[in-house]
């Protein structure tokens, strides 16, 4: 289920309008309509459908590059942000390290962090979702 959720997350953050994956006894089809993304899954697990629309808009902060994800400037420092923290456009939410170069990642939007999607020390891909943020 984690892989399916990650796939849906990546689809939601892409410009794709349709994605179909078929493998032996498993298949998934994601279709973006004008109003929502619909996911149907065929396997031993139940279908995954998008969450009900909320009055608050939730957006995703994605990785601007590949690298190792760090929640703090160093192992002894406090995390840049935690779930529930308010952020502004220029708030640093994490750093990504590639080839011994550390790049600060700004929120690029104002709101409240609702979820941290990766763990400290994880390798992330370009465009991979890092944080969920509720726009105020």
Structure characterization notes:
This protein is mainly beta and 136 residues long. The protein has one helix and eleven strands; from the N terminus they run H-E-E-E-E-E-E-E-E-E-E-E. The chain has one helix at 2-12, and strands at 18-23, 26-32, 37-42, 57-62, 67-70, 86-87, 92-98, 101-106, 111-116, 123-124, 129-135. The strands form three sheets. The protein has a four-stranded antiparallel sheet, with no helix packed on it. A four-stranded antiparallel sheet has the order 8-7-5-10, with no helix packed on it. A three-stranded antiparallel sheet has the order 1-2-3, with helices on one face. The two termini are 30 Å apart. The model is unreliable at 35-55 (pLDDT under 50).
Which features would summarize this protein structure in a list?
four-stranded antiparallel β-sheet, mainly beta, 2 domains, OB fold (Dihydrolipoamide Acetyltransferase, E2P), 136 residues
Task: Provide the fold topology.
Elements: H1 2-12, E1 18-23, E2 26-32, E3 37-42, E4 57-62, E5 67-70, E6 86-87, E7 92-98, E8 101-106, E9 111-116, E10 123-124, E11 129-135
Antiparallel strand pairs: 1-2, 2-3, 4-11, 5-7, 5-10, 6-9, 7-8, 9-11
Number of separate domains: 2
Are there runs of 5+ residues with pLDDT below 50, and where?
Answer: 35-55
Q: Can you tell me the CATH architecture of the largest domain?
A: Beta Barrel
Strand residues, percent: 35-45%
Mean pLDDT comes to: 80
Would you kindly provide a brief summary of this structure?
This protein is mainly β and 136 residues long. 8% of the residues lie in helices and 43% in strands. It has 1 helix and 11 strands, in the order αβββββββββββ.
